[in-house]
Every structure is written in structure tokens, then in C-alpha cells.
Amino acid sequence: MANKSDVKKLKQEIKDTKAKIKQKKKDLKDLKKSLKKSKKAK
Length: 42
Description:
By secondary structure, the chain is an all-alpha fold.
């Protein structure tokens, strides 16, 4: 059986991963926006 510290660590890792994914999606959106802007500027 997993002890409590392992479970806590795992939950923290999941939280961190979800936060990273959220940030990546946000970065992707921003990138697409800036691409559109640069196309209009040309």
C-alpha cells in the first residue's frame, strides 16, 4: 500500500502537470493571436 507522503506527492505532480498544460494552451492561444496580427501587419 502506498503511504500518505507518496499519495501527496502524486497529487502535487498531477496538479503541476495540469497547471503546465493550462499554461501551454494559453501560450498557444497567444501565439495564434500574434500570428494573426503579424499577417495583418504585412
